[in-house]
Amino acid sequence: MTAIAAQPEASTPFGCLNDDVVAEILLRLPSADDVLHCRAVCKAWRRVTSSPVFVAAYSRRHCPLELIVPLGAMARERVLDTIPLLLTLDETRRRRRCLQAPHRRRYSSMASLIGSCDGLLLFEAQPGSAHVVCNPVTKQWIMLPSCRDSYVCGFYLHRPSGEHRLLYLSDDQHGSHHVYSLEAAEAHQLEQAFPADIFCSQRPLDCLNYRGKLHWQQHPLALFSCNIQYRVQEEDTSKIVAFDTESETFRRISLAPLINRNPEERLCLTETDGKLAMAAIEQGSMDLWVLQDYNDDGTWTRRLRVDLPHPWLLPVNAGVHVQDMILLEDCWNHSLCMYDLKATRALEQIQFDGHQPVGIPYSICRNALAFRGSLKRHAFFDRQDPK
Description:
The chain is mainly beta. It is built from seven helices and 25 strands. The N and C termini lie far apart (55 Å). InterPro entries: F-box-assoc_dom_typ3, F-box-assoc_interact_dom, F-box-like_dom_sf, F-box_dom, SCF_F-box_component.
C-alpha cells in the first residue's frame, strides 16, 4: 500500500495552492498590517510572507521611499510625519500617514530620530544615552544597552555577515570607535582611525551612505585631526571622513578646491550620476562638485553653478539619500523641497504648519531621513523584554 500523501496544512481558503500562487495573491494586499495578519493564519502563509523574495517584492510594490520628518511638537508627541518621495503623488496622498515613535515608561518622551537602515529606525533620548531600534511596519522594537561616553555616528548593514551594526565614537580624547552588532548583541573595538588630541563632544552630524561607505562632512576626526607629533595640520582640519562598512576601516577625502573658504558657505554631501558629490550653497547660489574618481582626491570637478529660486534655501542634511536630489529648506516660508540636480530645478514644495508666522525665519527640520518600510523579520527583536 502506498503511503498517504500529506494533506495541505490547515483548512485555509488557499490550502490547495502552491507557495508561488499564494505569494502572488498575498502580494496584492494593500497594507502591511494585512500581511502581518496573514502570517498568523498558518505556518505555510507565515513561511511565504516571511521569505526574503516576498518581503523584497512587497516593499517594491507597496512601500515607497519616504521622507521622515520630526517636527517640533509632533516629535514631542512621538509622531513622525512621513512623505512619500513620489513626484506623481498629490499633496493629500503625500501626507497620508504618520509613524508612531516607540513609547515605553523606561524611555524618555523626548526621544529623537537619529538613524535609518534597512527598514529600521534608530532613536535616542539624548546623546550618549540609551537607544531604541524599531521596525515601524511590524511594530517591533528593542532597547539597546547604554554606552556611556559614546555617541552613535553610524547605523549600517554589514553585508559580509548580514548584521545590522551601530558605529560609536568614544569620548576618550583619542577619537576611538567601536561597533555594536544587533544580531550578535556584542561590541568590538576598531583600530585607531587617525591620531587626535582634541575631541568635539557633540554627536557627529548625519552621514551619507554611498556605495556601502558612510561619509561625514563634519566629524571630530575631520575637524580635529593631527599628525604623529600631535600638531594640528591646517590642511587636515576640513576633510570628509569615509567609513567602509565592509572592511570597517576609515579614510579621509580632501574637499573640492575653493570649498569651505567662506564661513557662510553651507555644504551638503550627495550622489549624482553614481558619483560622490558635494553641493556648496551661499547667498542663493549653488555649486555642485563631483568626485570623478572615488579613489583620487584630485579629481573634483565643478559640474554646475545655479541660482536657487529663493535666497534662503539651505540644505537640511546628508541623511536623505536620494540620487540626483538634495533636500532644501526655506526657513522663511517654513517649507521643504527636493531639488533635482539634473534638471536644475526645485520640485513642488512641501508646506508645514508652524507655530511661528510666515516671515520669521526659523528651522522647521533639523533631521530628516529617507526610509523604506520592510516586513523583514529580525530575531534580535525577540530578545526584548515586553515589560
